[in-house]
Design goal:
The structure is a single chain. The protein has 88 residues and is of the alpha+beta class. It folds into two domains: 30 residues, no CATH class; 57 residues, no CATH class. It contains four helices and two strands; from the N terminus they run H-E-E-H-H-H. Strands 1-2 form a two-stranded antiparallel sheet. It is elongated. Zinc ion (ZN) binds next to helix 4. The site of zinc ion has 8 residues, from helix 4.
Length: 88
Amino acid sequence: MPRGMYKSRTFRRVKTRLPGGSTVTRFLQRKPKQAHCARCGVELHGVPRALPSKMSTMAKTYKRPERAFGGVLCGRCLRDIIKLEARE
Ligand SMILES: [Zn+2]
């Protein structure tokens, strides 16, 4: 019987086959949700879906696109905002 903390679905269950042939259930942390655009809510590309401990070891250039508002706004929203700024 698993420990109490593993009985809920807080952790995801992964069945792993061991070298001896037996199967064990591993309880792993769930991944965070995909990053979304702050304006329209569409999923952002180029932003990894990794745990904070993994994100801290990743290079900054791996974590968001290298442009203004990269990792915050999607390309379409950024284009709209730049156009609006230019027309003012
Ligand atoms: Zn957007």
